[in-house]
Amino acid sequence: MYSANLSCVQNILLSLIRTNNKVLRGGFMDDVQLLRYSRQILLPDVDIDGQQALLDAKVLIIGMGGLGSPVAMYLAAAGVGHLYLSDFDTVDLSNLQRQIVHGEADIGKSKVTSACETLADINPLVNLTPITEKLDAQHLLAYAKEVDVVVDCTDNLATRFMINEACVQARKPLVSGAAIRLEGQITVYPNQDNNTACYRCLYRQETLPTETCSQTGVIAPLVGIIGSMQALETMKVIMGLGESLAGRLLLLDASTMEWCEMALSKNPQCPVCATATE
Predict the structure, then answer these.
(1) DSSP states of the chain
(2) How far apart are CA 225 and CA 141, in angstroms?
(3) Is the dihedral of CA 157, 158, 159, 164 positive or negative?
(4) Per-residue pLDDT, 160
(5) pLDDT tens sequence across 140-193
(6) Closest CA to 205 of 167, 249, 172, 158
(7) Domain 57-263 class?
(8) CB 155, CB 181: distance < 8 Å
(9) Distance between CA atoms of 254 and 184, rounded to whole angstroms?
(10) What is the dihedral of CA 203, 208, 213, 219, to 10 degrees?
(11) Residue 207: CA atoms inside 13 Å, Cβ hemisphere, count?
(12) What whole-number distance in Å separates Cα of residue 22 and Cα of residue 13?
């Protein structure tokens, strides 16, 4: 089905070689992959090396809801080689307003099963690991150690604390996003050393009033905006592209479409990252 278009690959490769004076090393990507990801490969900041980094990467996405839907769909489409999808919930009718990885025919299915079916249709070249059980701290840490990046798409503070602690212990980057009502936020916690803030530095109280979309509502495209940005930040972290949101929290007021930025500083008394071992 791809053969009619494969002649385009030669032009893409010639453009890459003439522009960047590069030669493919080892021929890791075949013609179908080169064509599928050609629009990314043509970007000088991505190129062959960046795309290969995506293909080699493993990403854990926790939550297959409003945020997890665009995160998973864009990472699969972009060619992240192995996606671990975690959610213990099932699809219901009220999810469909914003959780675009699911459809009406998926009502009653596991969200992870539904998402795997959609992602396999988007890009059958991506490896998918479904995780349908509720993860405890021990299993979450094991998965965090296994992947390159963790993406938090949950809406539960206790779960977010547990995800953060696992990422700090495993020294793995955490891409964190949240959306509720008409408000969204996103940042990246590198967790590579003891010099940067973690999620617990931002939320210093052990217990806070918790609100979820099911309680207070959310406008549908907002989760698409924040989730798409989470996917982009994940790709940037994997490829080492540009400047990530590490140390910066972006806040969106969708009612006015105004963004503001807040600097994140490490809490020296943080019960999670201040005590993490070197």
Answers:
(1) --GGGTHHHHHHHHHHHHHH----STT-S-HHHHHHTHHHHTSTTTHHHHHHHHHH-EEEEE--STTHHHHHHHHHHHT-SEEEEE---B--GGGTTT-TT--GGGTTSBHHHHHHHHHHHH-TTSEEEEE-SPP-HHHHHHHHHHSSEEEE----HHHHHHHHHHHHHHT--EEEEEEEBTEEEEEEE--SSTTS--HHHH--SS------HHHH-B-HHHHHHHHHHHHHHHHHHHHT-S---BTEEEEEETTTTEEEEEE----TT-TTTTT---
(2) 28
(3) positive
(4) 95
(5) 999 999 999 999 999 989 999 999 999 999 999 999 999 999 999 999 999 988
(6) 158
(7) alpha beta
(8) no
(9) 8
(10) -50
(11) 0
(12) 9
Amino acid at 270: C
Residue with tokens 């803030």: 197
Domain ranges of the chain: 7-18+29-47, 57-263
pTM of this prediction?
0.90
Q: How many CB atoms lie within 10 A of CB 169?
A: 18
